[in-house]
Design goal:
With 114 residues, the chain is mainly α. The protein is built from five helices and no strands. It comes from Heligmosomoides polygyrus.
Length: 114
């Protein structure tokens, strides 16, 4: 089983490869759907429709996947480890900085609060 980091790196590469290869995927689906699956009287309309829309649909589909989502579903990452912590209101002293920095930040320097 992959670690969370390994999974995210592999998933990112996989998603990027799928997005980059969408025209080849589109051509393969179009060949099967329009020339093998449907009757011949639908071939021209099918080709026109899939040539126009399928690459965009594949792009939008692959863009919906995220490395975090894939790795969480594959149980390589837990959902908590993929979340970014909310640090907007966290101050230096709460993060365990060097005590002198906390002292300066708390008390100010030369009578001026930081």
């Amino acid at each position: 089983m992959l670690s969370c980091l390994e999974c995210k790196v592999a998933a990112e590469e996989g998603i990027n490869a799928l997005i980059a290869d969408r025209n080849k995927q589109s051509a393969a689906v179009q060949e099967f759907a329009c020339h093998k699956l449907l009757p011949s009287n639908f071939t021209d309309g099918c080709d026109d429709f899939l040539t126009l829309y399928l690459p965009t649909v594949l792009y939008m589909t692959w863009e919906q996947f995220t490395p975090e989502g894939l790795c969480t579903k594959m149980k390589s990452c837990d959902s908590v480890s993929c979340e970014c912590p909310d640090i907007k209101n966290v101050q230096c002293c709460n993060l365990g900085c060097i005590p002198s920095r906390c002292c300066v930040r708390s008390n100010g320097v030369g009578g001026v609060k930081a």
